[in-house]
Amino acid sequence: MTEKIKVYITPCCILNRDMLKEEFEVIDNWMVVDLIISGPFVNEVIPHSLLPNFPLNKLIYMLTEPAICNPRTHFYNNFDKMFLVAVYNPTKPNQIPLTIDNKHGAEYPFPLCPIEPITRKDTTMKNRGIFQAGELGLESNGSPHGFINIRVLRRQLSEYLEKNPKNYVIGRGTKKGMIKPSDNIRKDKQEQIMISDCDFVMALENSVSLDYVTEKIGEGFTSDRVTLYLGASNIENHVPLNCFVDLRKWFNPITKIFDFEGMSKYLNEMKQEEYDKIIKNAREFRKDSNRKYQDNKTDLTNRTIKYIKDNYHKV
To answer: Do 268 and 83 meet the contact criterion of CB atoms below 8 Å apart?
Structure first.
């Protein structure tokens, strides 16, 4: 009988764990295994001091977010030394594409609607309040690997909204922030959105890049509010533009200047009819979100398993 390949699965792995356990021998000690299957947050489970000596040739790295800190940049700069990297746009033999369904949305690796959605009976705009979804911090000015870092813009938007108390509600990371996050942060955020009685949810990714879409855009969808979104530069390939307000209209990617007044004017002048159309379209989009996410997750797990079996050879 052929000995099973020994693998260590980090807490941040985004593949189907049960499927991996059926094919490989899962070991708790990453130092004695054949391969390590991980996500973008390797530095959270392995001390930073060990990064220079980390066995990259054993690493299966699931790229889900751009590098915004030095430990993660370390791995970005060493893709060619890794056993396998799952990325959006593969350029080398050891890289395979993440599952992206351009017809129905970028449902992998992030479930765009990760919690049960709310459907309001009354969608009448009340105060045109904006809930700032997303915490602040890690505001590196760098734009590694072609990404445009917009964490700084997230803070600037919060500061702008704080000066306009008639039409804002602020989320976690600001003076009027959310409660301390718990084990169910998505549900907590949804409850905060409901309590705030806002009409809009601000959703900014960490960076502007092709195909980089996370669950942030879904926080407005699941809360049954109109989402204000900036992130994936080709978001229309993943989510229909009629489901949200596209903040690219007011953002210059070259100068990184945002037209705060223009956005505010548009939202303050929005008619109820337009608001309800966006809500209706978002409800249609979110209907099948979880199934698509699970299907794509299974697909990528199967392709990863096949790659391992076809390419791994004990030394």
So the answer is: no
pLDDT tens across 98-125, in order?
887 655 555 677 888 888 899 999 999 9
| Mean pLDDT computed over 176-189 | 61
Share of the chain above pLDDT 70, in %: 82
State the Cα–Cα distance between residues 65 and 46, nearest whole angstrom: 18
pTM: 0.86
Sheet with 6-9, side-by-side order of all strands = 25-26, 6-9, 35-38, 59-62, 84-87, 95-97
| pLDDT for residue 179 | 47
pLDDT at 15: 93
Cis-peptide into 109, omega within 30 deg? yes
Mean pLDDT over residues 164-176, rounded?
A: 63
pLDDT band at 209 (very low <50, low <70, confident <90, very high): confident
- Label residues 81-111 b or e (16+ Cβ within 10 Å = b): ebbbbbbbeeeeebbbebbbeeebbbbbbbb
Q: Tell me: pLDDT of 190 over 60.
A: yes
DSSP string, the chain: -PPPPEEEE-TT--S-HHHHHHHSEE-S-GGGSSEEEE-S-GGGTS-GGGGGG--GGGEEEE--S---SHHHHHHHTTGGGSSEEEESS--STTEEEPP-BTTTB--SSS-SS-SPPP--S----SS--EEEES---------GGG-EE-HHHHHHHHHHHHT-GGG-B--TTSTT-PPPP-TTHHHHHHHHHHHHT-SEEEEEEEEEETT---GGGHHHHHTTSEEEEEEETTGGGTS-GGGSEEGGGGEETTTTEE-HHHHHHHHHH--HHHHHHHHHHHHHHHTTHHHHHHHHHHHHHHHHHHHHHHH----
